[in-house]
Write a structure and sequence with these properties.
The chain is an all-alpha fold and 125 residues long. Helices cover 61% and strands 0% of the residues. The longest helix has 23 residues. It is elongated, with a radius of gyration of 18 Å. The N and C termini lie far apart (58 Å). 17% of the residues are buried.
């Protein structure tokens, strides 16, 4: 049986090759997001979003309030440390509300023309 330290190198490699290294909290694999490519944490976060986005958009269209509440709850739980500690917000629940704002903005963009009665910047705010 290999000691835990000998498994870290291959585990880091597998996690980075799959771009899932941002999902691992520091308690499980210390500083996983910084090992090979420090800015790669954002790529991991984007990849997590791309895997979930189709389902998130479908849920937003069908049940917007419930989807918002679930996303807000996951973000709050993540910020409270329920999913572990992360040096940067590299785990999707930690940044989920930001992605949700982007999705809602994009889905609403076609309706901005309906707001011609007042300035567009007001609608964007």
């Amino acid at each position: 049986m290999l000691p835990a330290g000998e498994l870290r190198g291959p585990l880091h490699l597998v996690l980075h090759l799959t771009l899932l290294h941002g999902m691992v909290p520091d308690q499980i694999l210390t500083q996983s997001i910084f090992i090979f490519l420090p800015p790669g944490w954002s790529l991991s976060l984007e990849w997590q979003f791309y895997l979930v986005a189709p389902f998130l958009i479908a849920a937003l269209i069908r049940q917007p309030l419930l989807t918002f509440l679930v996303c807000a709850s996951l973000t709050l739980l993540g910020k409270a440390g329920l999913f572990g500690n992360f040096a940067l917000p590299s785990f999707l629940p930690l940044a989920l509300m930001l992605f949700l704002i982007g999705i809602v903005t994009r889905l609403s963009f076609d309706h901005f023309a309906d707001f011609q009665a007042f300035p567009l910047w007001l609608a964007l705010i």
